[in-house]
Amino acid sequence: MSPPTTGAPAAPVTGNAVTINNFAFSPAKLKVTVGTRVTWTNQDTDAHTVTSAGSGGPLHSAALATHATYSHTFTKPGTYAYLCTIHPFMTATVEVTR
After folding, report:
1. Nearest alpha-carbon partner for 37 in 59, 64, 16
2. Side-chain half-sphere of 54: how many Cα atoms within 13 Å?
3. 4 falls within a domain
4. Pairing with 94, which of 4, 24, 58, 60 sits 20 to 30 Å away (CA)?
5. Which range marks the domain in which residue 30 is found?
6. Phi/psi at 22 (nearest 5 deg)?
7. What is the CATH number of the domain that holds 41?
8. 23: helix, coil or strand?
9. Do the domain assignments include residue 5?
10. pLDDT per residue rounded down to tens, the chain (98 residues)
11. Domain count of the fold of the chain
12. CA atoms within 13 Å, Cβ hemisphere of 13
């Protein structure tokens, strides 16, 4: 028997890598410190982008083919929401702290 789920959102994961697989960013919530270079790797057969939600954000990848990567170094604290512009239901965040 499985334990009951609380419905609470998943806690942010630390590290510097995000995998794109099964039309999702994993982890969906990444926590890093200022100066961290994060690399996204597309493991899907479909192309995906890593693009800041809203205007003026720092993330603007080209369409990533299978096994392609995109990297960005975060220089300011904050929470950075992003999505795949090809599949806008794919969303995630990077939380940057000092």
Report:
1. 16
2. 7
3. no
4. 4
5. 13-97
6. 55, 40
7. 2.60.40.420
8. coil
9. no
10. 544 445 556 677 889 999 999 999 999 999 999 999 999 999 999 999 999 998 889 999 999 999 999 999 999 999 999 999 999 999 999 999 99
11. 1
12. 13
